Every structure is written in C-alpha cells, then in structure tokens.
Amino acid sequence: MFLAFTLLTLGSALAMAFQKNVIVAGLFLVATFIGVSGLFILLSNPVSAALQIIVYAGAILVLLLFVIMMLNAHEEESPQDDLYLQRYIALGVGGLLLGGSLWFIKQSKLLQSVAERPIDQIAPTSLNEIGAEMLTRHIVSFEMIGLLLLVSMIGAITLVKKRL
Amino acid sequence: MIFSILSLTPELSWMLIKVLVCIGFLMLLAPPLTWVERRGSAMIQDRIGPNRAALFGKIKILGLAHVLADGLKFFFKEDLIPKDANRSLFWIAPALAFIPALLGFAVIPVGRSFQVEGVTYHLSLIDPNNGMGLLYPLAIGGLAVYGVLVAAWSSNNKWSILGGMRASAQMVSYELGLGLSVLALFVAVGGYDPHEVILDQVEHGWFLWRQPIGFLVFFVCQFAETNRLPFDFAEGESEIVAGFHTEFGSMKFGLMGLTEYIHIIVASALIVTLYLGGWSIPFNGDGDRWPVLVTVASFLVKLLFMCWVFVWVRWTLPRFRYDQLMYLGWRIMFPLSLLNLVLNAWWITR
Hints:
The complex is a heterodimer. Chain A has helices at 2-18, 22-42, 46-71, 84-107, 109-116, 127-136, 139-160. Chain A is mainly alpha-helical. The longest helix of chain A is centred in the middle third of the chain and has 26 residues, at 46-71. By secondary structure, chain B is mainly α. Chain B has helices at 2-5, 10-44, 65-76, 87-103, 135-154, 158-189, 194-204, 207-210, 212-225, 237-240, 250-275, 292-314, 322-349, and strands spanning 114-116, 119-121. Chain B has a two-stranded antiparallel sheet. In chain B, strand 1 (114-116) and strand 2 form a beta hairpin. The longest helix of chain B has 35 residues, at 10-44. Chain B starts with a helix and ends with a helix. Classes of the chains: A mainly alpha, B mainly alpha. The A-B interface holds A 21, 23-24, 27, 30, 37, 41, 44-47, 49-51, 53-54, 57-59, 62-63, 65-66, 69-70, 124-128 and B 86, 89, 129-133, 135-136, 138-143, 145-146, 149-150, 152-153, 161, 164-165, 168-169, 172, 175, 179, 186, 190-192.
C-alpha cells in the first residue's frame, strides 16, 4: 500500500512538473494530493487525509483550474530569454530547503519518539483530539492563522473592488 | 463453499458481499429512477408519459421497458469524439464523474449493527470509528467537481466550458453551506461518525426537528451539489444546450446520466442519515428492539421517499437565474449556516 501511494504521489508530481498542458498538470496535482492523503491514512491520521482532499483537491485546485480555464491558456508561451542566473538561484534555494527539512526531520525528538513507538499502539487520530489540541496548546498560532486569512481576504476585496 | 475455495477470511468475504451489494444496489436503482423521473413528471404535469416501448412488442408494464431500451441504445450507438477534443481526458471524464458519485455511499449505515457469535457486523461499507466519519462524503463530494470540469474542458466546446464553469462555481460555493451545516451536527452530537449521529437521533429525536435551519441549508445545498433543478445551470437547452456533456454520446452520455441519478441516491442517503434518523424507526426509542431487516427496510423507505422528493421538486419549482443562485448561496445559505452553527454551539454550552 505504501509503495502504491508513494508511486502515485511521486509519479504524478513528476508528471505535473513536466506536463506542458496547464490543465492536465493541474489534474496530475490532484492525483498527487490523493496519493498524499492515502499516505496520511497509512500514518493512521484519517482526519488529515480527509482535510487534504476537502481543502486542497476539493477547493483550492478547483479554483485554480477554474481560473486557468477562464483565462483559457491552452499552450504555454515559450520563454523570451532564458534567465540562467534565476535558474541557478532556484536550484540553490531548492537544495537548501531540501537539506534543511531533512536535517530537521533527522534531529527532531518528537518524530524519533513516534518512530520508536510500536505500530499497533497508534490509534487513529480523531477530529475531537485535533480540535482540542488546536484550541489549547496551539491557540496562539491558530488565532494568528485566522487573522492572517482575514487580512488576506480584506486585501483581496480592496484589490478587486474599485469603489468600496 | 466458494469462500473457502478463494481462501477468504470471514471479514474479507463480508466486506466483499457488502461492496457487491452496495454497488449493485446503486447501479440497479439508478435506471428505475430515470423511469420514476419521467413518469413522475408526466403525473405532475397531467400527461401520460412514456408508455410505448414494449417487451417483445406486447408487454408494456407502464413504460418500464423504456429504461431497458435506453440502456440498449446507449450500448449500440456510435461512439463519437469531437475532432479538437483532448482525447485522453475526453475518455476518462465520464469515469471521473462516475466513480466519486459511487464512492460517496460507502459511509452510510443502511441498518443497525448486529452480532453473530460474538462478532459484530456493521451494515456500512466503512466500519465505524475509522476516524474519518462524515468528513469522507464531504471529501468525495469535493472530488465530484472534477468530472464536470474535465468533461467540460476536454470537449473543446464553448457551451461545454460555460456549463462546466457554472456547475463547478456553484458546487464549490454551496460546499461551504454544506460543510457548515454538517459541522453544526458534529457540535450537537459530540462526534462525527455516521453511526454516532444515528444513535444520537435514536435517543434524542431526529435532527430534522432539532436543527431545522441546518436541515434547510443542507437540503438546498444538496440540490446545488447534484446540479438538479431548481439549480441545474450546468445545462440549459435555450442557452448552452446540454452544458458540460453536450459533446458526449453513446455510453459516455449514459454514464453521465447514471451519475446524476447516483448523486441523487447518495444525497438522499446522506439526508436520511443526518436528518431523518437513518435506519431508526420513528416513535420508538430503542433501536435494538427491531430485527435488522426491519431497520434496513426503514432506511430504504426513507431513501426512496427522498429520491422522490428530488423528482418532485424538479417538476414543481421554476428555475432560478444564475446570479440569483449565487446570491442565494453566498448571501442567504452561507450566513444561515453560520447562524445555525453559532446557535447550536450556544445551545450546548448553555
């Protein structure tokens, strides 16, 4: 199962990156999300799996594809001149991010304790637990995210509406 | 026995039976629903309705033979693909529409759980306490948009694109109200598993009475999600022909049509489970008193009634206009569902 979902995730992620057609690329991204949510289920976290599909596949990607279809960009334009410098910077930053996240995973105490726990002791996380965690231990970051979303919403409205 | 030949464990064979029965049920119920729709519309509009097709030229059975004839016609029609269509996407679009519609039924408990020789059997495809509960149909419902979007875009037809745009915008907008009204249910139950929701209703009464606003929002949003009249803007004969499935013919169209009816069945099943007490029998506090088959029958009666309501509404209410639909979704249904959530949250902390 793990192999199947991993292959689905990685394969469609690669296909998305190399696909010229924007809409097909978007659909591959959906397949990637489905693979990721399958991995979440294998990690006995069905809530995250469901939220992954509801939020990313069900809402964000639909809006994205919607906009792409609206603008009707069938074929991608060929770049006017290659920005070599940009390419190297992107490579460097990408490598840095990858190395950083690998280092973070390696030294994280929490993840190590999870890995050492026997597999049959892990019960599926329920929505109730996640809700309680969010409103007690992570209340500050939860409120911060809410505020950030509110601000971005106000920003979007002021950008679109000429006369308020 | 066949199970021992295939070396299936009891759990696996029980699962297999459940899958076969559920999918078979959905596939077998959808074609008669088209008949109900046509005869029902005729009844409501004081017409006779389809009554000519006959088995072997003799047996007419109230036009039921039309369903068979339609199915046969779909299979034998020429399968056309428009010249400028995106061929591969055009091929998988009906499947992308069909599969999520089928999958949604998996969490619905069709009867009470029972025990045989110490083993508990649940009458839903996905066992309770799996941690996903009612988030699952919401997630699957979110995926249903892709069938419409892909079908619309791959046909390379302006009517299709317009129909697909309308349908997807409407489905995404109404998902908000849908999610929030279900959230109010979670708050009232204190859990989010369909089994818990039903047991709670057995104990304290149907949510139809306990959360009428939530029911109203959920009900209306389900109509928008299934793209049914009064919100059927994915189609429109005088504006955009058949909308997102204009270019689809033969069995591809058949699959699209089947998808609509399966959506109706699944939506009805969700309404029954969440607001009409699921398999429970009304005016009767203890659900364990009745035999399992009676609870299944109770669920089926409610389900078929809700399917009929879908048909009934279609032939009774006039269509909305598209901007009215969006107004209703964002200015009325969304605030109503928020109000419902806040009211219920206040109610339990009282």
